[in-house]
Amino acid sequence: MPSASASLFHLVLIKPTHYDDDGYPIQWFRSAIPSNTLASLNGLAEDAQRRRVLGPDVEIRIDTYDETNRRVLPDRMIRQIRRAGGRALIGLVGVQTNQFPRAVDLARPFLDAGLPVCIGGFHVSGCLAMLPDVPPELRAAQALGISFFAGEAEEGRLDEVLRDAWNGALKPLYNRMNELPGLEDEPVPILAEKHIRRTAGAFSSIDLGRGCPYQCSFCTIINVQGRKSRYRSPDDLERCIHEHYRRGIARFFITDDNFARNRNWEQLTDRLIAMRTTHDLKLAFTIQVDTLCHRIPNFIEKVTQAGVRRVFIGLENINPDNLLTAKKHQNKITEYRAMLQQWRDSGAITCAGYILGFPGDTKESILRDVEIIKRELPLDLLEFFFLTPLPGSEDHQKLSAQGVWMDPDLNKYDLNHRVSHHPKMSDEEWEEAYRAAWDAYYTPEHVRTILRRTAANPRGRIANTIGLLWWFCAMTRFEGVHPLEGGGLRLKFRRDRRSTLPRESALRFYPRYAVETVRKVWGELSLYREWTVIRHEVTRDPNRWNYTDLAIAPPREDELDTLDLYHATSGGEAALARQRRHDAIRDRAASAVASNAAD
């Protein structure tokens, strides 16, 4: 039996960040997006505590840390655990490939203090799912004494880990990759209010489904979460919303990779609509969808009625040849304009992901495509990514099997750094093209165009739009990070530098940090001031409601023959020919049905 001092079990859940180019953890006074993995495991841990899975006399004390907005001090945490007494487990959760080096650095002092450490997340799960052998970095971590958890922790799987840690018998590996759990009636993601308040928009998150039916070669989700989708119920959703709303949280990021393919989407949105109308809840949501979501009857109408205000769209590319290379068969460029115009009509702010570095890309073709998007697609935000062979993806599996060079520094696998070579572009050209794409889209002239489109839309939200435009530009231009891992007011701590780099002297570190901070803040404020002037000019224009351009104009009969989207892109004309054949077959079928009905 545990002693009195051992009747306390400390469960410390840490979502690690990763290092910047100088080797310092990327941390903010206010970060952008909360970690859904941290929220999910916290919800499961709270449920385990309520069920007393370690026995009726054992208290599980849960501490959660999101390192993107809170400094993690292992030595201090170790002292606190020792003062309180009891046993402990340190869980490094949701660890992506780029976060793995930081996770191991955080683990070392806990291991040195004799505390067990377990790492889970996409890097561990993806490597075990797709590689024939355990990669060197995982073997090295296991040699330190780190345990791994691969898979998902619902359906009591966290209980096993907690019991083993309590009994001092943590296994080297918990591999649950072949046993994907159901989500219905499982504990919902929940975080303490302190975490939510440390995000820039006071967002929380929930996953209403996991898995994806598609086969994109660059994606890790289909190999980690599976191609068979699993869902939460409307009751689960309502319970999660009410738990957060009581804490003053009403804005949510639904983290499903593709909410449009959640078979329960209509039941879920109907429940949200009822909650908004019956209980007068002021809810707002951000979702992720594919480029064919507008083909689902009433989908866009219902999700915006339910409170969706922002939508991330997996556009990925406008060159059909590139899309076919990535097995992105579901993306059809002939649908892009209609889809984006429907989202615009709904009032939702659109953000599209765009991948740079497909085999056919050149710097010139990339910049040409950015100009086509600016001119012909009614898109608000565009975010760029290096084509990256992430461990857990088919791309990584193939390159690894072929012995092709990939950067050994896992910290760079954040989609914001080049980690492989390109068949046409030199390393320098590819990196230049990436930076140039950001600069080409976020120009004052195009910001003015986007704001004019928004101001002409009765449902447009110009204040939100300019705020997001500024954020996306400022993070890449001044902070050197991707907007999705950005935040407000960068924090750096001299003693937290990456273990493979020397600690800088105080005389070198602090003056440079101060100068960097002033320079960045000044640049960001200057940019905001410049764009605010543009906003005022747009909103005060007496003819704002009459503005139109090619992107937002109603479809024309001749646009398939005239738009560069279909004729200047790689594979565009072939895609157009396929669409015309499809339309002809559909028209003949419709005529046959009508003829039979008439007979």
Question: How are the secondary structure elements laid out?
Answer:
Layout: E1 8-15, E2 27-31, H1 36-50, E3 59-66, H2 74-84, E4 87-92, H3 100-112, E5 117-120, H4 122-130, H5 136-144, E6 147-150, H6 157-166, E7 173-175, H7 193-196, E8 203-206, E9 209-210, H8 221-224, E10 230-231, H9 234-245, E11 251-254, H10 265-278, E12 284-289, H11 299-306, E13 308-316, H12 320-325, H13 333-346, E14 349-356, H14 363-376, E15 381-386, H15 394-402, H16 427-441, H17 444-455, H18 462-479, E16 487-491, H19 506-539, H20 559-562, H21 564-567, H22 572-598
Parallel strand pairs: 1-3, 1-4, 4-5, 5-6, 6-7, 8-11, 11-12, 12-13, 13-14, 14-15
Antiparallel strand pairs: 2-16, 9-10
Over all CA atoms, what is the radius of gyration? 25 Å
Task: Report the major sheet.
Answer: 6 strands, parallel
CATH superfamily of the domain at 4-175: Response regulator
Determine the oligomeric state from the structure.
single chain
Question: What is the typical, i.e. mean, pLDDT?
Answer: 92
The number of distinct helices, counting runs of at least 4 residues, comes to 22
The CATH class of the domain at 4-175 turns out to be Alpha Beta
Q: Give the class from helix and strand content and strand pairing.
A: alpha/beta
Query: Could you say which overall geometry the principal axes of the C-alpha atoms support?
Result: globular
Residue stretches low in confidence (pLDDT < 50, at least 5 long) are 1-5
CATH overall fold name of the domain at 4-175: Rossmann fold
* Second rung of CATH, namely the architecture of the domain at 4-175: 3-Layer(aba) Sandwich
Helical fraction: 40-55%
For the largest sheet, list the strands in their spatial order: 3-1-4-5-6-7
Distance between the termini: 84 Å
